[in-house]
Design a protein that fits this description.
11 helices, mainly alpha, 345 residues, Methane Monooxygenase Hydroxylase, Chain G, domain 1, three-stranded antiparallel beta sheet, Flavocytochrome C3, Chain A, domain 1, globular, 43% helix, 3 domains
Length: 345
């Protein structure tokens, strides 16, 4: 696989349209892990199966597996998977109707996020949340296609509420300007200045490697603790290099470095929250899998974990999952079938 193709998303639709997964021995290994539905199993189960094949030495040269649609007619591929056909041809030079795709599991979506109310409001006035960054939507594992659906629904809610707030704010400002005795806050030029570090890409690369190695598909206390210690070290190093960009530098300082600095700053908080929550949750549930606690434990862990900052330290709180009632509860019980009891797990 060409280096420029690394990180390219191979959509779940490929498996949905009949794509099969093969290891380096050309074995259709999902027969062993999930014989009922094989490649159509839940994404967390499929990801752990791929991971298991790789660590047991049946992965490809680049630590992946093969995704194969060569048995599907070209006409169907062009009709049902036109974007994937063009993507692999243009980026990797691969005709997926004739050649297998080399794929591997990766971090794709976060089921956690920012807590909001029914109007998508956070506790910070004026800050609304929608899309992947919102929490309390998908539970422990998101269904394919639902990310687009939640973006549309909650994007509409958040956009509408933000518009209402902006209109009220505008009316308040106009009223303030019409009253001589009332002052209006003037713009502070210092608010336009940015804080940066000079080599943020090094931090981003190490954080990505650290999270993949210590808080990835298969987790355990030892590696999570190791990852947490390094994240806290990186946080100290990051802020020791953090500085306000001088006005004389503004025009020539690469905008990419400013953007990556902001990404790293956020990542350090997010990754600490992920690792601390994963350490606290001593069970496996959905995309969170602990090899030292491989079973679901509803008696102790049917809870949501909330992270917040108190006196510059991160504090974790547990709250029971809100009860689902009525018809929705029956549907949930009928279709919710966790898969953490398989022998390979």
């Amino acid at each position: 696989m060409p280096e420029n193709a690394l990180g390219t998303l191979a959509t779940e639709a490929i498996r949905g349209e009949g794509g099969i997964l093969l290891n380096s021995k050309n074995e259709r290994f999902m027969r062993k892990y999930y014989p009922e539905r094989m490649e159509l199993g839940p994404r967390d189960v499929v990801a752990r199966a791929i991971y298991n094949e790789i660590v047991e030495g049946r992965g490809t040269e680049h630590r992946g597996v093969w995704l194969d649609v060569t048995h599907i007619a070209l006409e169907k591929i062009l009709d049902r998977l036109p974007t994937m056909y063009e993507q692999f041809k243009n980026i990797a030079g691969i005709d997926i109707s004739k050649e297998k795709m080399e794929v591997g599991p990766t971090a794709h979506y976060s089921m956690g996020g920012v807590a909001v109310d029914l109007k998508c409001r956070t506790k910070i006035k004026g800050l609304f949340v929608a899309g992947e960054v919102i929490s309390q939507i998908h539970g422990a594992n998101r269904l394919g296609g639902n990310s687009l659906l939640d973006t549309l629904i909650f994007g509409k809610i958040a956009g509408g509420e933000a518009s209402k707030l902006a209109k009220r704010f505008k009316e308040t400002q106009e009223k303030a300007l019409s009253i001589p005795s009332m002052s209006v806050v003037t713009h502070n030029e210092s608010e336009d200045r940015f804080s940066v570090i000079d080599e943020p890409i090094k931090f981003r690369n190490e954080i990505q490697e650290l999270m993949d190695s210590n808080a990835g598909i298969i987790r355990d206390a030892t590696n999570l603790q190791k990852g947490l210690e390094r994240i806290l070290e990186l946080k100290d190093i990051f802020y020791s290099q953090y500085r306000v960009l001088k006005k004389i530098e503004m025009d020539n300082f690469p905008i990419e470095k400013i953007v990556i600095t902001l990404e790293v700053k956020s990542s350090l908080v997010d990754c600490e929250a992920i690792i601390r929550s994963a350490l606290m949750r001593q069970e496996s549930r959905g995309a969170h899998f602990r090899s030292d606690f491989p079973k679901i434990d509803n008696e102790k862990w049917y809870v949501n974990i909330y992270c917040k900052i108190e006196d510059k330290d991160m504090v974790l709180l547990k709250q029971s999952v809100k009860e689902i009632k009525g018809t929705l509860k029956k549907i949930f019980l009928d279709y919710s079938k966790p898969k953490h009891s398989r022998e390979f797990e």
